[in-house]
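Chapter summary example.
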Amino acid sequence: MPLTSGVHLGPYEIYSLLGVGGVGEVYRGRDPRLGRDVAIKVLPANASSDPGRLQRFEQEARGAAALNHPNILAVYDVGVYDGVPYIVSELLDGQTLRDRLSSGPVPVRTALDYAVQIAHGLAAAHEKGIVHRDLKPDNVFVTADGRVKLLDFGLARLIDQETSGVVSSVVPTSPPGMNPGLVLGTTGYMSPEQVRGAIVDRRTDVFALGVVLYEMLTGRRAFVRETVPETMSAILRNDLPDIHSSNPQVSLPLEQVLRRCVDKDPARRFEGMHDLAVALGTIEVTSTSSTTAVTSVPQFVPPLPEKRRAGLPIAALVVVALAFGAIVAMVNGC
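The structure predicted for these 334 residues follows.
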């Protein structure tokens, strides 16, 4: 049963219910000691006795509390009151990206801005050895002033990184049920390695960000099908759907960034969020046109095909020949 207005949860006073998610209920509350409004997430009464959900809740609290970045929801406190576990975080004013997408695609310039902010937040998490593993529009919050905040690190996992940046092992901070072999995440945004139940690293978040960016630009979910098995099969086998039929304003370099993000092979994706943020930063939207323009071409853009490369010198020779002919004509006419 939801908490009612005026009830106290430890030192915090409950104001109203803000929403209900897969992990718990979120309330608007107030911290009288500091005189500020806060968001309070609690496990429902019927779930607080479930060891699995309780452990995931604690996992989220530990993961979020370890992070301090402008693009990640700030966690202020964690506690248990009368057997009810809760997390206290900053109270945000705005809407989730899922709510924003309910009205249609996001303009290219805005989508790029959101994607870069998401990449910065995830880069900060990765530097702490934390992979989100459940990035989706529902877990991206856009504040009233356009700031992106990442939510719900409930599936986050700590990783042990070698100097090469490749995950060598999983730090045992999660219960046995979360070991490799168990499929975890949200269907439609999982990477191929998640679908297979394999060990994941930060490139799984790269895949998910590519899928989210595609959805921002088109208003459509890239791999979602009618059933869960069909969706998983699409993630494993299907290429990213054509983007220009839904949004012709997407430039070729932007499409190349998207397709590299969602490559089935993690080794062919961006190595990390910093690289992805740099690539996205090279793509700009002109202020006088609705089309995208590139100020500098990312290094990963493939070279021109052989036929097109061969055609360039021929075109140059034609121009020179025409110019030479004009000069000869002028001399003969003198």
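To summarize the output: The chain has two domains: 8-90, 94-294.
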